[in-house]
Amino acid sequence: MTKVAVISANGRVGSLVVKELVERGYDVTGFGRKAQNTTVAQTYIQKDLFELTKADLAEFEVVVDAFGTFAPETLHLHVEVIKHLTALLAGTKTRLLIVGGAGSLYDDPEHKTQLVDTPDFPAEFYALAKAQTDALTELRKHDDVDWTFISPAADFQVDGKRTGKYILAGEELTLNDRGESIISYADYALAMADEIQNGDHIKERISVVGK
């Protein structure tokens, strides 16, 4: 049975990823800062992610980084989390999957312009998108870690339904048949679980869009 660690497991995305994995029969350990486990993970460990050690993660075949923060004074932590986790997993066979952002998706086939740098990008989301983009840039430096960065669609819906369907895409902003870049947290968690199961995109950034 594959053992998976989900960091920030009590979060909205993390808890849904835990649910998808447990339902597939994975042995899931959730890590979180709070004492209470609000997930269905079989095991829960209260520990701040910056206090995690190599020994804490040694037994897992997959680690999911579901960390997220929106406060301006903590946005730099997106990069710091990547630095910390890659240092712990460097040179190991443990796969690292990251819940990413959409701002780093490319707006052109030449991959010269990222969504965050386009003229119409919403100003209120710029700082967060830039922090998540910087996190991907940092991640790409680490060839000694088997990472996968999964970007959601531009419209990432917290309370959207689980349709069980999604489009697997790559580095570019992709639209569905209705011309939308949209996906629910629940369908994103489904896509994350599929990638954990299949392992088809090592050292790649992929993206997912709701059908």
Automatic annotation (TrEMBL):
The protein's name: Hopanoid-associated sugar epimerase, hpnA
Superkingdom of the organism of origin: Bacteria
Pfam family, any one: NAD_binding_10
Organism: Ligilactobacillus animalis
PANTHER family linked: FLAVIN REDUCTASE (NADPH) (PTHR43355:SF2)
SUPFAM superfamilies (alphabetical): NAD(P)-binding Rossmann-fold domains (SSF51735)
NAD(P)-binding domain span: 9-195
